[in-house]
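Data availability (excerpt). The following record was deposited with the supplementary files.
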Amino acid sequence: MHILCMYNSKHPQTWDESLPDVKHNYIRALQSSNGHIPFQVDLGFWSLCPIDVAMPLETTQAEYAHVQSEANKSIKFIE
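Predicted structure:
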C-alpha cells in the first residue's frame, strides 16, 4: 500500500493504471522478512523483464542458460 501511495503521489487519481507495474516490481524484490523473492518462491524461477533479455546478468551458469533460453524464445516469437 505504501509503495503504491509513493509511486502515485503526484497523480493519485491514476493509481489503477500503475498497479501492474508496482505489483511486478514488488514481487521481483528481495523481501527482508524471509530473504526470498516472492515470484521465485511461488513459481520456482526468476521472472524476466525486457532488460533481462537484452542484457542478461551472468550470476551462475544455470541462470545464464535459462536467461539465454528465454531470450532465444522471445526472439523467435518476435520474428
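Summary of structural features: Residues 65 and 78 are 20 Å apart (CA to CA).
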